[in-house]
Amino acid sequence: MATLQTAKKELRSKLRKILSELSKESISVQSSIATRNLLSLPEYEAAKRLSVYLSMPSGEISTAAVVHDAFSKGKQVYVPYLHKTDPSATATQGRSSVMEMLALRSLEDYELLQADKWGIPSLDADSIASRKNCLGGYGVAGTAQPDSTSTGAEVETEAEGSGLDLIVVPGVAFDEQLRRLGHGKGYYDHYINRLTNKRNVEGNATMQKPYLVALALGEQLLPPNEKIPVAGHDWPVDALVIGDGRILTSTS
Question: According to the lineage, what is the superkingdom (predicted)?
C-alpha cells in the first residue's frame, strides 16, 4: 500500500508541475472543445439530474459553460460540498470529512457563489440546510427541511426521485484505460460507493451507478505506455472527454 500511495503522490506532483505551466489561453481553448463534446454525449443529453464539479481558476477544464447549459435545458444541477463528520460512524468508513452533492437552485444562484481559498465557487454554509441533497432530503444529513424562505420550486417531491444520472468528475491525471487519479482525498470514490450501496428498508439497492464522465486537459492524459496506479476501491470513469477533441469511452 505504501508503494501505491507513493506512486500516486509522485504522479500528482509531476502533473501539477506540468499543469501549473499551462497558459490561460490553452486552458480556455481546451475547455471550449471539451465542453462542446461533453454536451454532445447521449448520456449527457438524457441526464435529468447531474452533478458537476466547480472548477478551479487554473489547471483543469472549466465547467462554467456546462452549468449554464444544464440550466438552459432544465436539468437539475448538483455540486460537491465537503463537510466534517464523525469518523467513528459506520457510514463514513473512518473518514473525518465527506462529500455531499447539493442542489444549485438556479443559474443566478450559481453566479452568486463566492470563491473559496482555492478560487473555486462554493456554497454558502448558511444555505446548506435548505439545499436539496441528491440522496434525498435536504442538507448534509439528507434530513433537514427547507427553511421558510424556500419557494415551492425548491421543494423536492417524491416524483422527482433521488440519485444522479451523470457525474462530471475532476481529476489530476487519467490513462487510456479510463483510470483516474484524483487529488488524494478519495471523496469521489467514497461518494460513488455510498450512492451505489444506498438501500431501502428491505435491503434492496435504491440507486443505479451514474454515468461517470471526466473532463481532461490534453496534458492530463498519460502516454499510452503509462498507467494510473489504482487500488480496488478506485472507480474508473465511463468516458473521458479531452481538451484536444478526443473522447474515450468504455465501449470504444
Answer: Eukaryota
